[in-house]
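User: I've been trying to design a sequence by hand for this structure and keep getting stuck. Would you show me what you'd pick, starting by listing the structure so we're on the same page?

Assistant: Good idea, let's start from the same input. This is the structure you sent:
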């Protein structure tokens, strides 16, 4: 029995028809580069947008591990990448404890 869907292997190029990297490649590249620059673990991508000039992501980073884990300190970073998927800028937007609600964030309820 064969699998009917195709899953790219790590060696395959995920470029789109326009030569830009695909979303999964961009996500991996952004997390890897931000981790290397900060020396901290990029945990999750909480927003992702393709723009005319490249890509904009918001990545959650573990800044300080605490016990219990719900007290660990995280930060949200806005990351900008060029059309080639390379990081061009980043900025910390906010810091928060892992167990805290997002209710006080602009636009949140």
């Amino acid at each position: 029995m064969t699998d009917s869907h195709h899953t790219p292997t790590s060696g395959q190029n995920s470029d789109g028809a326009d030569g830009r990297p695909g979303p999964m490649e961009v996500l991996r590249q952004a997390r890897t580069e931000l981790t290397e620059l900060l020396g901290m673990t990029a945990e999750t991508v909480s927003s992702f947008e393709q723009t005319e000039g490249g890509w904009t992501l918001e990545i959650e980073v573990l800044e300080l591990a605490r016990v219990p884990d719900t007290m660990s300190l995280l930060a949200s970073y806005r990351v900008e990448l060029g059309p080639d998927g390379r990081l061009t800028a980043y900025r910390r937007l906010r810091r928060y404890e892992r167990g805290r609600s997002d209710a006080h964030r602009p636009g949140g309820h």
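That's my pick for every position. To get oriented when you compare it with your attempt: The helical segments are 23-38. The chain has one helix and four strands.
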